[in-house]
Amino acid sequence: MHVIIDTHCHYTTEPQALHQFRDKQLAGLADAARKPASTDLGIPDDVVRKSVEPQLALQKERSIDLTIFSPRAAGMAHHVGTEATSHEWTTLCNNLIHRVCSLWPENFAGVGQLPQAPGAPPANCVPELERIVNELGFVGVNLNPDPTGGRWSEPPLTDRQWYPLYEKLCELDVPATIHVSSSCNRNFHHTGAHYINADTTAFMQLIQGDLFSDFPTLKLIIPHGGGAVPFHWGRYRGLCLSLKKKSLLDHVMNNVVFDTCVYHLPGIELLTKVVPAENILFATEMLGAVPGIDPETGHHFDDTKRYIDQVSDLTAAARQAIFEKNARRVFPRLNRRLAKRGYAGAEMH
Amino acid sequence: MHVIIDTHCHYTTEPQALHQFRDKQLAGLADAARKPASTDLGIPDDVVRKSVEPQLALQKERSIDLTIFSPRAAGMAHHVGTEATSHEWTTLCNNLIHRVCSLWPENFAGVGQLPQAPGAPPANCVPELERIVNELGFVGVNLNPDPTGGRWSEPPLTDRQWYPLYEKLCELDVPATIHVSSSCNRNFHHTGAHYINADTTAFMQLIQGDLFSDFPTLKLIIPHGGGAVPFHWGRYRGLCLSLKKKSLLDHVMNNVVFDTCVYHLPGIELLTKVVPAENILFATEMLGAVPGIDPETGHHFDDTKRYIDQVSDLTAAARQAIFEKNARRVFPRLNRRLAKRGYAGAEMH
């Protein structure tokens, strides 16, 4: 019995009460009198339920069994306010994801955001990482490689400031998805430049460094098909060699996977041609990253399952790896949950 | 009679005297006593000649007839020193390109750098643009979309601050290649992240804006295959629609071309599949952007002609457009020169 796992969706249909809280929270930075009175959003279960209906409808329509679900990426906005702002906001956003996952435990598995903030040591995020995994049952976390929102004024991912977080990720056996948030830099459109640039940037940082010598079991997901990397696979293979590293596959790809948030067939064809199938996770980033219907196909841009189904060169085993097996390897806590529910483990395929 | 035009090469084998000047120039920022005594580099013709021999040898080996040649991109370093530093350095670098082009007028056509500097209005670059085109006979120019070297703290390309430069480009009928320089941001490796990110960023800025309504004849080259854009062609088509613009082809691609600095066959296959052939310029960025031999093919990564030759789907007309015709359309001053030399014009094909 197979499961199709969408590894990258954000909660973009959140109840209005969450947005209202955020407005008050940020207004409170300028005028303490406007601070929200309480962190209890007072959202009843049926409002949470209703808010996720569009997601559930698309799951069904596209034959997706389970969605790995995290707070809206652009909403994290770690560059806004103080570390305390980020912490309060993060807690609320993660708790709301937990409510969705508790209401539909068959349909969703949670991934959290972290209370990052410019200038704050990433080690400060360890308690929230422990809470979301140990108390809320989340299976992964989104890690923002640029908490400055497009100013890129913090150290790269290979800097030792991040090590306490990597240690905890390894200890808890959860992966991190490298995902920036909104951009306060007018040069960078968030979904059109900042997201894709961040993917490319993170990958190149991993080539330059030797992070996986220090953390051989660390697992990182680079979303949006790995940014520009597969298109420039020759460039990255060449740079890896000219920097005197091992081959790209040996140096980076034992610990890194890309997802399939690439919104046209030729892109998915390239991805599956140059990147080994075991390094690819099925994902859609629905709803909303790239909304609408492609006039060239008559189908939604973000219906990435259609593209994968159309790649004629993929073996059944590769397809199975992309849709299920790799996700169960990269998210071991999800794998254990699925095994308990009677789905044969990744090892069995 | 056909000409094969490599539209993107930098002078990366410059005589040592140029580097020595630069060291003294920058040392002079800290200690005026160390300033270079003269801007006369004292480089004899035979040293210039010898320095370009590797480039000429590769031209011959790869059957390239003409190279569009500009100063080392990473060398521009507009973020270093003052506007006066940039102006002095730019003049020297452009003059050296002019010497190469004068020594081998059949083999090289010049493209210049601009004396950009953070905080300095781009309009200040107009006199140097006029000089390199009218006095040195250059056919194009490299325009740095981030003169802050990876801090990205200046306005986007659609900002009106750039308009005087665009007006002059249109008047002189020369294209601009959007090309960043070195990175002073430790997050961004220059050739592995900053260059590719800048290409992607510039393209998205053009989608967000309406620059070509104001400058219908402006021609921009986005190098390195257009950054991440062709791989995410569906994303950009979708974003263009969701931003209520015309289709991507109508909104941007009448004025923008990509080059073929993509260092593996599957990347070139994708590029030529999703991007119309008239929007692609042959280019290699040799020597040095991605040095070395690809162990998978036994050939140099940057021998991009081999990849194009291997794309089986390309018609003879498309191949001709990529190798010659498009370059002659985008660089009209080069086209006129070639026509004078007896090569039938682009219009003739």
Describe the protein in words:
2 copies of one chain form a homodimer. With about 350 residues, chain A is α/β, with parallel strands linked by helices. Helices cover about 45% and strands about 10% of the residues of chain A. Chain A has an 8-stranded parallel β-sheet with strand order 1-2-3-4-5-6-7-8. In chain A, helix 1 runs antiparallel to helix 5, helix 6 packs parallel to helix 7 and helix 12 crosses helix 13. The interface between A and B is large, with 59 and 59 residues.
Kindly name the structural category of chain A.
alpha/beta
Largest two-chain interface: A-B, 59 and 59 residues
Query: Which percent range describes the beta-strand content of chain A?
Result: 5-15%
Strand order of the largest sheet of chain A: 1-2-3-4-5-6-7-8
Radius of gyration of chain A: 19 Å
Short description:
The first copy, chain A, has 349 residues and is of the alpha/beta class. The first copy, chain A, has 15 helices and eight strands. Chain A is globular, with a radius of gyration of 19 Å.
